[in-house]
Every structure is written in structure tokens, then in C-alpha cells.
Input
Amino acid sequence: MKPRIKICMGSSCFRRGNRKNLEFIESYLEEHGFVAEVELVGSRCEEQCRKGPNLEINGQMYHEVSQEILAGLLEQVVGRCSGE
Ligand code: FES
Output
């Protein structure tokens, strides 16, 4: 099963960083050739705005996701895709 990244596109998370996080994810997956290996979806507000920006990877929710945190998470996702 493909890893699934669900990024909150609600206005609060979007403003607090997910606009840039989305761009970061898209270019990261493109650079690493994993666009087709990962399911990337957006969600509406998850009602956890105060802890945003929020995103979920394989059902696990992450809060206050900065680009540094995101880079580490993506490394794990891509690592799993390539069987490392
Ligand atoms: S906007 Fe993301 S939890 Fe509300």
C-alpha cells in the first residue's frame, strides 16, 4: 500500500505553514522521483487548528509541522518506499 500524506488545507493550517509545506512536499517527491509512489491528499480543517499546521502520514497526525520536521518525515516516507 502506498504511503499516504494528508495535509490540512483549512485556512488556519494553510496560513500557518501548510501552503509552503505543500510546495515543499511536492518538490521533494518530484526531486526524489516518488510522485507516483506516495498518495498526497488535502483535507479540510481537522478541528485542531491551534496545534497547526497539521498533517497526517499513514493515519498518524503530526502537529506544528515546520519544514525541518517535514524534511525528516519525508525522509522516512521515501525510505519506506525504496525499502531502506
Ligand atoms: S485548519 Fe487545520 S486543523 Fe483547522
